[in-house]
Amino acid sequence: MFETGFLRKAVPVALAFIVLALWPLWAPAFYAELAMKIMILGIFALSLELLVGQTGLVCFGQAAFFGIGAYAAALMTPQSEAASLWFTAAVAVAAAGGYALLVGALSLRTKGVYFIMITLAFAQMAFFVAHDTDWVGGSDGIYLYFKPDASILGWKPFDLDQGHTLYWLVWACLLGVAAFWSVMLRSRFGRALAGIKVNEQRMRAAGFATYPYKLAVFVFSAMLAGLAGYLFAVKDGVVNPELMSWHQSGAVLIMIILGGLGHLRGALIGALAFTLLQELFQSQAVFGSFAKHWQLMLGLAIIAFVALLPRGLIGLVTPKEGA
């Protein structure tokens, strides 16, 4: 029974990753770029799903960690030469995790709406620091003039400026995050997170110190968001304070709700659906001049999805059991 259920869930995911890997070989450049954007947002959505869907911690400041990862990539890339991919990526992830350690140490002592507001406050602090500080570009942001160098002790396994190499790097990161995410949730640590979500007081009564678990998952979630921000900066070649705005935190929260809370596949489906809906409603070829009101159409569409599919889009795939 377990093997049958596992295969029923794993096979479509494996096929989707295979299609993604082959996608840039035949798809037009625009659609390859769009797929890369969706994969990066998929990592971002998985980072928040780990908090909201698996631990029950509704964080409204996830964009801060995403933005920190992006800014780290830009600040460590000089205008005259490429910086090391491995070093800059590690620093970006560590910077996001370090800020999360500070935020989590304080905010996790609260619950409910207070936790939501404190995480939002810390995210807005990061936003205004980036917005009002000249050395990080202020409101104009920073440009990356070179993609990172993947050399290891003089050996260069791949070049991000060549072909679809960056696309496949993003694909490999998404695959690694999804695989590790899935394995971790089936471990003792993951079971503890599930228990905290269901009944934290009972977990404490059973002898679990829940605070370290919540702090650990908060930091790990931020590190994943930092990785997504780093990849986003490398892809676009520019970062600005809007990456840290509360709109971005709200957008990723909508993604995981749209896809279906509590599901790994739901976070990925939500990132896909949200991005495609944005592209659709912004298309002047489809909606003409009314495309300038795309936020209105997107909002109405999301309301309709939530009303008709309370379990999210994943409910269309698994109507009776979870992922």
TrEMBL record:
Transmembrane segments: 6-26, 38-65, 85-106, 113-130, 165-185, 211-232, 252-277, 298-317
Membrane topology: Multi-pass membrane protein
Keywords, comma-separated and alphabetical: Cell membrane, Membrane, Transmembrane, Transmembrane helix
Molecular function GO labels: branched-chain amino acid transmembrane transporter activity
InterPro entries in UniProt: ABC_transp_permease, LivM-like
GO cellular component, one term: plasma membrane
Main location: membrane
Protein name as it appears in the record: Branched-chain amino acid ABC transporter permease
Organism, as annotated: Ideonella aquatica
